[in-house]
Design goal:
24% strand; single chain; alpha+beta
Length: 137
């Protein structure tokens, strides 16, 4: 009876797979959690910007100088954030400027970088008056 010679590299692919598969899964988890983190930051910035723009729609046209009706502007921005479901803070920084800060918390898809992702977005919207030269009365 003759016996065959066994190749010397038996099992080498298995060792490579045992090392590469966990490393690739780790990288995939980092990519998924990292992209969720970036989406949360973008969402916070967008919500803050939209709430500030909404506040700027509260223009006071009754006075000789065009400005923002501060009570209505703060209420409008707060209502926008409440409908969006995220807490925020509205500050009237001048007669034509509104600053909105919002905090967005979302659960992490995989949880490698933490159980949840929290981001704070801030936006400043200034009311511009004038169409020709951009001058503000």
């Amino acid at each position: 009876m003759t016996t065959r010679a066994r190749p010397r590299d038996t099992g080498s692919v298995t060792a490579m797979i045992a090392i590469l598969v966990p490393a690739l899964l780790f990288v995939l988890a980092l990519v998924v959690d990292g992209s969720a983190r970036l989406r949360t930051f973008a969402c916070a910035d967008a919500l803050a910007a939209e709430a500030a723009r909404a506040a700027n729609t509260a223009v006071d046209t009754r006075s000789p100088h065009v400005g923002i009706d501060t009570a209505t502007a703060a209420r409008t921005a707060a209502d926008y954030l409440a409908r969006a479901g995220h807490p925020g803070h509205v500050t009237i920084t001048g007669p034509r400027a509104v600053r909105v800060t919002v905090t967005v918390t979302e659960p992490a898809p995989i949880g490698l970088l933490g159980r949840s992702v929290q981001a704070t977005g801030t936006a400043l919207a200034e009311l511009g008056v004038g169409t020709r030269d951009g001058g503000l009365p």
